Amino acid sequence: MSTPRIARPDDVPVILELIHELAVYEREPDAVKNTPELLHSHLFGDNPRVFAHVSEGILPGGEEPVVLGFALWYLTYSTWEGTHGIHLEDLYVRPEARGGGHGKALLGELARITVERGYKRLEWSVLDWNAPAIGFYDSLGAGSMDGWTVRRLDSDALARVAAAASATRSGA
């Protein structure tokens, strides 16, 4: 296992490949709309608001280190704590590299950044059917947010709410 490092622009293709692998694993193989250009812009553009770390290692039979996993994250803000936190959007390690400590190292690096910067929270969501991931997170001492349910506006509902707000603003 290697120490995670900050993603570089030349990592964009492999990060996007891993995002596609994650989508397949999460039973949403056609859901990824991201492109290399968008991902590059968001991670490395003029004002990045999304960040990534990667973990490298040598696959069985391989000779050169390759990216085996990634963590993609962004800042949050807690009104109660009065400080930022980190939201882990995606954590993914290739199946053939699981158990090698890459996921733990990536989460550890984000925990280190959280503490170093004086943030109070490192949070993420996990699908309720993903028992291996839940077991992994439990083994680290990550608690679940009992009593909270994640909600989302997207697609048609997002468009309806935005249209209603626009109509209100324009006096229609």
From TrEMBL:
Any Gene Ontology CC annotation: ribosome
Keyword set includes Amino-acid biosynthesis: no
Gene3D superfamilies registered for this protein in UniProt: 3.40.630.30
Regions annotated as coiled coil: none
InterPro entries: Acyl_CoA_acyltransferase (IPR016181), Diverse_Substrate_AcTransf (IPR051016), GNAT_dom (IPR000182)
Keyword list, A-Z: Acyltransferase, Ribonucleoprotein, Ribosomal protein, Transferase
Database matches in PROSITE patterns: GNAT (PS51186)
Domain N-acetyltransferase: residue ranges: 2-165
Pfam family, one: Acetyltransf_1
Family indicated by similarity: Belongs to the acetyltransferase family.
Protein name listed in UniProt: Ribosomal protein S18 acetylase RimI-like enzyme
